[in-house]
Amino acid sequence: MKTRVTRSLVTSLHQQLNQYLLQSSECLRVTDIKLVSEDAKAFDCRRSVTEKCYVYRLGVVPSHVGMLEYINKMDAFEAGMIGLTKEPKHGLDVDKLKLAAEIFSGVNDYTLFRVEPKDLHQKYLQRVVRQCSVSVEPGSAAPFTSYANQQTPDIRLWNIIFSGQGFMHKQIRFMVGAMLAVAKGELAVERLEELLSHPELARMESEIPLATSGGLCLTKMVYPPQCFESL
Predict the structure, then answer these.
(1) Whole-angstrom Cα distance, residue 135 to residue 119?
(2) What is this structure's pTM?
(3) CA-CA-CA-CA torsion for 54, 25, 223, 219, nearest 10 degrees?
(4) pLDDT tens across 68-110, in order?
(5) Separation in Å, CA 136 to CA 58, 59, 86, 203, 226
(6) What is residue 64's DSSP assignment?
(7) Which residue among 6, 21, 86, 180 has its CA within the 20 to 30 Å range from the CA of 230?
(8) Helices within 35-93 (DSSP H only)
């Protein structure tokens, strides 16, 4: 006999899953549960997605502060969720950081911004990045960390938001690395545009550094509404 799925059943499952995760000390929480429609027979949680949203949480270490000193001020859990970068003595140009973000928006060929086999079909390398914006808002620490409400001038956290139908292996981390290189004056804006518009060019590995993985987090996956049933 088939069990009828009700809202109360889903709520109970939601609570039990989070209780288990809490007891197992996992740094995960279930925020929502959806019921896949019986008509969506070909539903695949990875291939059926129409949009993925990521945030890269960037921590900028001021030039006068040592990296270790900076890390010691951070909550241990928070430190693993932030990509740290050292600010150059001449400063980090936020306007150029935003400009680099604008350059990445739209349909582009990301051949030079990924780690994949070189014989991939050209169509696979063209990705739509619907949003690439920089939110320069200090004090965006996670609310459950020990220093979330502290006003620490040395801790500057920025959110770089990405959304698109999909991203290739390490693509976002290369994009963040390129944006930082532009903001630090290590990569000219014109060169970034050239690398993006002419994927057949060769580039030096040092031109586009790979940003650390700590700051990257998948925040949302969007599916066609007909994939799910209402409860």
Answers:
(1) 36
(2) 0.79
(3) -20
(4) 776 776 666 666 788 888 889 998 998 899 899 888 888 888 8
(5) 10, 11, 16, 30, 36
(6) T
(7) 21
(8) 67-72, 76-79
